[in-house]
């Protein structure tokens, strides 16, 4: 699953040019408002939802926003499957019934797709209706009562022949960057080369647990020519807008944090009970790769 992060103005310009040329087959536009989300998910009842784009989970569900309930339509079929799931390290809790329904993602039809309908929900952003789960389907065995694997949108698009390969390309614009094209795009079945500024490089999924359960990779962190953090495992998670570093020992992480702070001149502050580094615009302009 190639992940292409638009981290500079050239990428934002590429997305703007793509919008002018028109949408490609298998492409779904992403919007951003603090987080990345798909603006339209339409079921057979013509209900519309804004759902979080999340490669860190695999269950697609709706019904999380007050005043915008899921309504059964002509293609809705309830299933006996009940889901109990936690997100964001346990801060978000979902209990949901599961339906099979016709789902349309910005013109891309999935029929049928198993989706959850929230019956109990806590800790989830009130501005969103649910989640588009794009992680490995095996994650769903941990949230169903009998360990059933619920196919993801990518699995079903491939299974029904809409896309030739079970590939997801992800192109994201920084959430604090204003641009014409919104938050980016998802390319189902291929990588959209029109928004690339370099060649795509493929890496294997890590063998280190628990990252190996997700789209996990082994990576190190370098700033310029200096290694800030030695190789460790992590996951590619579009549901989180910041890079969270874990997996190494506490001492190693603190050392890496302090080294990066000293090198960039950043100042420590706190957000959502996490320490983060803040830099000025001049410091940002002088950042090294």
Key terms:
11-stranded mixed β-sheet; 37% strand; mainly beta; 289 residues; 4 helices; two-stranded antiparallel ribbon; disordered N terminus
Give a quick summary of the entry.
This protein has about 290 residues and is mainly beta. Helices cover about 15% and strands about 35% of the residues.
Structure explained in plain terms:
The chain has 289 residues and is mostly beta strands. It contains four helices and 15 strands. The strands form three sheets. Strands 1, 2, 3, 4, 5, 6, 7, 8, 9, 10 and 11 form an eleven-stranded mixed β-sheet that branches. Strands 12-13 form a two-stranded antiparallel ribbon. It has a two-stranded antiparallel sheet with strand order 14-15. A hairpin with a 2-residue loop joins strand 12 and strand 13 (226-235). The protein is globular, with a radius of gyration of 20 Å. The two termini are 23 Å apart.
Helices and strands, with pairings:
Layout: E1 3-5, H1 9-21, E2 27-32, E3 36-42, E4 48-54, E5 61-62, E6 77-87, E7 92-105, E8 108-122, E9 130-133, H2 153-159, E10 168-172, E11 184-188, E12 216-223, E13 226-235, H3 250-264, E14 267-271, E15 274-278, H4 281-285
Parallel strand pairs: 1-10, 4-9, 5-8
Antiparallel strand pairs: 2-3, 2-11, 3-4, 3-7, 6-7, 7-8, 10-11, 12-13, 14-15
